[in-house]
Specification:
By secondary structure, this protein is of the alpha/beta class. The chain has 28 helices and 32 strands.
């Protein structure tokens, strides 16, 4: 808000004659009291007067954040030549004498803040001598003193609101620092100050008296007039307009933050600079004129688009500064006149950019016509949710500065303004563009408590990309305008996704299992409690059951239900069903029988493989029930040899269904997810995230209806590892689990995040024997992960993520350490043969750090819902 802003006339200079006529008619239609405004009179007495509305807000902010220097403004000029210190002192003193605002302090009377104009007094110039320092030390000390000066607080109850420092670098080289508080001056005021200092210094060095005309009025006169004038019908008309403008507007701009928003806004800030080339700027001006708009309106509309694409919000509210000196008698005063206008845009329905530009233009013209209501009154009127963590009404600011900026010129001195970076930010984000001969110079000031520099740099690049896209196709819908550069798109769409994976594509999963049996027939394949099977024994059991199921009607593309406890029978059943060519339907043993019946009907399963205790509770569903226990003898009578399958068409083994697994129904009715052979091979024969080897001991902790069982069971069977079952009681007891993992020499374990947290809280060292611990399923607590890492952690800790629809795991992240300020654990990158994109509602890739929806594909993707 303390940057130089433009008058209304400068803002609309590029309007076409037709649109200027429309604006004139609009302004003429304003209330009669506005058109009949009287000249601002001088106040009758010198007693304290109320603060202006703008001053009142800054005074209030200073009271609640007394240590903040967000509203300090420091400028630095290098003066080369013979500096006349006496002339400089007299010039500064004269400016203080002329402008009461610089010698106004602030007190309270009966709890109400008032302005107290102090008698004229000299401005004390602080001097420092750096000339004796070595050049490198001199530069470092100069930067330190500039920073210290900009961060030095003003005491609003007694200080002059502007101060000066002169730092001597050599006999003919000095640095002049001028620091002011925003409560006494705005961007326009700085130009008034430089103009007067230039004229006064020239006069005093020549022995002349002040050449400046007297000041016809003072800031306190304006503040008193504003309070009297802005009331009654005048105030009611303005309030009615702004109430309509902001009715039901969003209170918070949901920009993606790099760091959690602090409870109290600290105002620490930094800035990022960028340039829009002159050729692009000229084309934007042409586009604006062709659409009866100004460059400011086009740039503002593009900023609305940028924020909408970053937040996915369809209504964007932005603040924009305006000089607030719409009356001629105010133009020569130093004081806080700048007002903040609120620009709201509706972007629902994905309009074209030209449609949005017309909306922004029409709203801007309306807002300019009602600019007299101070922003402080808008806040009172809107009564937003009060929070010290963010600015009310809006959190992003936009400004275009296209008026020539008056620079300091001192007689016989070469003057160079030094670029200074403010270390404060008043808002979450502020973008300011300045027209120069080389194009538009952009500056994004940002709150460093919220954003990292890299994020803001990307945002600046994306804004430039939007402008180029607008010029290429102004009628393009805003959701399809290019945001990312081609290089960014390649990184996200290609470089971060690897489609290659060396999993075996020419064999069925039961054929891969048969090959393991042939290599290591006597190796232990399954251990559940006191029962165990070698790979040969497991294969023979599965072959017998497969022949029995085949005789009962199980065949390719059929679905066979599997409703058993976690046991050896569960694994035998899964393997046997696959050997028939059918797909298995894993059913949760604790699932209500009615839900089981629904899934059997929905899949048209003709066979249910179960056990007597469960099958007896099943309602009628049309499926033939085969039980491991009651049909034991009939199954055992079958041949243990492999069923001869008919040859597949080329590639047919890849797409054959293996299982159908139902979603939880949290987003509606449960849906059956159809998983193919390729998906399982991509999951368990994929060294990009985990290598499973013969001799590994893999824990089997999940029931068959949870897709983690796919990783556990097939990971062991297809890699020659041993699958070791964990009973539910052991799994839920951190002490018993720790003992079990050690005694059974478990090397690979998957846990849900919730169970991982529970164990980490009580026995963070429980996982020490493991070679690989995988966990996932929901947001993870960094403290729990740190506890595990600090207590004999497993060799490899993997955070995994993925929906059932993409076969158990989609991404992986190896966790080696967790930062103390981390608030979650990343889900990482895709495993091989998997693609992951984060897209917006228009299916465009979002920038890094921006919220979007995960879209995933690759070999793990299901055929669809059954």
């Amino acid at each position: 808000m303390d940057s130089q802003t433009n008058s209304l006339e400068e803002r609309i200079a590029n309007l076409s004659p037709a649109k200027r006529t429309l604006l004139e008619q609009h302004l003429q239609s304003r209330s009669a009291q506005t058109r009949m405004r009287q000249t601002i009179p001088p106040r009758a007495h010198a007693e304290p007067v109320p603060l202006s509305f703008a001053q009142q807000r800054l005074w209030f902010l200073e009271r609640i954040q007394p240590d903040s220097t967000a509203y300090n403004h420091t400028s630095a000029h290098r003066l080369t030549g013979a500096l006349d210190v006496t002339a400089l002192q007299r010039s500064l003193d004269e400016i203080v004498r002329r402008h009461e605002s610089l010698r106004t302090t602030f007190a309270t009377q009966n709890g109400v803040p008032v302005q107290v104009v102090q008698p004229a007094r000299p401005m004390t110039i602080a001097f420092g001598d750096l000339s004796q320092l070595a050049p490198d030390m001199r530069q470092a000390e100069l930067q330190r003193q500039i920073s210290a000066e900009s961060q030095r607080l003003f005491d609003l109850t007694r200080d002059l609101m502007r101060r000066a420092t002169v730092l001597r670098l050599s006999g003919l080289e000095h640095i002049l620092l001028i620091t002011s508080h925003h409560i006494a001056c705005d961007g326009w005021s700085h130009s008034v100050f430089w103009r007067e200092l230039s004229a006064l210094y020239a006069a005093h060095t020549e022995g002349r008296s002040s050449p400046l005309p007297s000041v016809p009025m003072q800031y306190a006169d304006y503040a008193l007039w504003q309070r009297h004038w802005l009331q009654g019908e005048r105030l009611a008309a303005l309030q009615q307009f702004w109430q309509g403008q902001l009715d039901r507007s969003p209170e918070l701009l949901n920009l993606p933050l790099d760091f959690p928003r602090p409870a109290v806004q600290a105002s620490a800030g930094a800035a990022w600079h960028f340039v829009i080339p002159a050729a692009l700027s000229r084309e934007l001006k042409t586009l604006s004129r062709q659409n009866d708009s100004t460059l400011y309106m086009a740039l503002l509309a593009a900023f609305h688009v940028l924020l909408a694409r970053y937040t996915s919000q369809t209504e964007i509210v932005i603040g924009t500064p305006i000089a607030g000196r719409q009356y001629p008698e105010l133009e020569g005063l130093i004081g806080m006149f700048v007002n903040t206008l609120v620009m709201r845009a509706e972007l629902a329905g994905n309009p074209s950019f030209l449609t949005l530009l017309r909306q922004v233009r029409d709203r801007a013209l309306e807002v300019y016509g009602h600019q007299e209501l101070p922003f402080e009154r808008i806040v009172e009127l809107r009564q937003p949710m009060r929070s010290l963590s963010h600015h009310p009404i809006f959190q992003a600011m936009f400004a275009l500065q296209n008026a020539p900026r008056r620079s300091l010129q001192l007689r016989s001195l070469e003057v160079e303004e030094l670029p200074l970076e403010r270390e404060t930010a008043k808002f979450d984000l502020s973008m300011a563009l300045t027209e120069t001969a080389s194009g538009l110079e952009g500056r994004i000031e940002y709150d460093t408590a919220l954003f990292a520099k890299e994020t803001i740099a990307r945002m600046a690049e994306h804004y430039a990309n939007l402008l180029q896209g607008i010029l290429a196709d102004p009628d393009c819908s805003i959701g399809q305008l290019p945001l990312l550069s081609m290089a960014e798109r390649r990184v996200q769409l290609v470089d971060w996704n690897s489609s290659a994976c060396a999993y075996p594509k020419d064999k069925h999963i039961h054929e891969l299992f048969d090959a393991v049996v042939e290599r290591t027939p006597e190796a232990v394949a399954l251990i559940f409690g006191t029962e165990q099977l070698t790979f040969r024994q497991l294969n023979e059991r599965a072959n017998r059951l497969a022949r029995y199921l085949k005789a009962a009607g199980a065949c390719e593309e059929n679905v066979v239900g599997l409703w058993v406890d976690r046991s050896i029978n569960m694994v035998v059943g899964m393997l046997a069903i696959v050997k028939t060519g059918a797909a298995y339907l894993p059913l949760d043993p604790v699932h209500p029988p009615e839900g089981v019946a629904y899934q059997l009907r929905d899949t048209r399963a003709a066979i249910l493989l179960s056990q007597g205790g469960l099958a007896a509770t099943l309602p009628r569903c049309g499926a033939q029930v085969i039980c491991f226990d009651t049909d034991r003898d009939l199954i055992a009578a079958q041949s243990p040899h492999l069923i001869e399958a008919k040859p597949d068409q080329p590639g047919g083994s890849e797409e054959r269904l293996v299982y159908v697994m139902y979603t939880s129904g949290s987003t509606g009715r449960p849906k059956g997810v159809a998983i193919a052979q390729r998906a399982i091979k991509r999951l368990v024969c994929n060294p990009s995230y985990v290598t499973l080897s013969p001799g590994d001991r893999i824990a089997q902790a999940s029931n068959a209806a949870f897709d983690a069982a796919t990783f556990e069971v097939w990971g062991a069977l297809l890699n020659g590892a041993c699958l070791v079952g964990i009973d539910q009681d052991t799994l839920l007891s951190p002490q018993r689990l720790a003992a079990f993992l050690r005694q059974e020499r478990i090397q690979v374990l998957f846990l849900t995040t919730a169970l991982f947290h529970q164990i980490a809280a009580l026995r963070p060292d429980a996982f020490a024997p493991l070679r690989v611990l995988l966990f996932g399923g929901e947001k993870s607590d960094p403290a729990a992960v740190r506890a595990v890492l600090a207590n004999n952690p497993p060799h490899t800790l993997l955070h995994v993520y993925g929906p059932t629809e993409n076969t158990t795991f989609t991404t992986h992240y190896r966790v080696d350490n967790v930062a103390q300020d981390a608030h979650t654990i990343p889900i990482g990158r895709p495993i091989d043969a998997t693609s992951v994109f984060v897209l917006d509602t228009h299916l465009n890739p979002v920038p890094i750090g921006v919220i979007g929806e995960v879209h995933t594909g690759g070999a793990g993707l299901a055929h669809g819902y059954l």
